[in-house]
Design brief:
This protein is mostly beta strands and 144 residues long. The protein has two domains: 2-72, no CATH class; 86-139, no CATH class. 12% of the residues lie in helices and 31% in strands. The protein has helices at 25-31, 90-99; strands at 10-11, 15-16, 19-20, 37-39, 49-52, 57-61, 67-72, 79-80, 83-84, 105-108, 111-114, 119-122, 131-135. An eight-stranded antiparallel β-sheet has the order 4-5-6-7-13-12-11-10, with no helix packed on it. A hairpin with a 4-residue loop joins strand 5 and strand 6. The radius of gyration is 14 Å and the shape is globular.
Length: 144
């Protein structure tokens, strides 16, 4: 299960832990030691999504099968500049990111993103972060 890593450091527009944006689906599947479930595309995704239940991640690929979006769910707790994002109240995470100079853009009442570092946060009621995503530069300006 992802080499038993519990806390991953986010590198803006590059990835998290050992997962790197731009890697091929085939390379990632051979790297991860877990079978995935392939889900049909949804939302802005234009290619099937690989879900790794034990690892609690979903990986989105572009039309060329290159990784463009990583969604992480508990128990993993990705770190960005020492901020443990998972489980934080959304407003607390936003304030900490603003203190670092990053500005949020709300997609809806329960999710926001920071385009200047390629991080998205999902926090359904009661506005506690339950998913952290890392995406490639320009993803929201193009079709996947």
């Amino acid at each position: 299960m992802l080499k038993n890593v519990i806390n991953w450091q986010i590198v803006p527009y590059e990835g998290v832990g050992e997962l790197r944006l731009g890697d091929s689906r085939a390379d990632i599947r051979s790297f991860l030691d877990e079978d995935c479930i392939t889900l049909p595309s949804w939302g802005s995704a234009r290619n099937d999504i690989d879900a790794y239940d034990k690892a609690c991640i979903q990986l989105h690929y572009d039309k060329d099968d290159l990784l463009v979006f990583i969604e992480i769910n508990p128990p993993y707790n990705p770190l960005f500049r020492e901020i443990e994002l998972m489980g934080l109240p959304l407003q607390s995470a936003i304030k900490q990111m603003q203190a670092l100079g990053y500005q949020e853009k709300f997609d809806d009442a329960s999710s926001c993103r920071f385009n200047d570092v390629g991080i998205a946060l999902y926090a359904p009621m009661p506005r506690i972060i339950t998913a952290v995503s890392i995406y490639k530069r320009g993803l929201y300006e193009e079709s996947i």
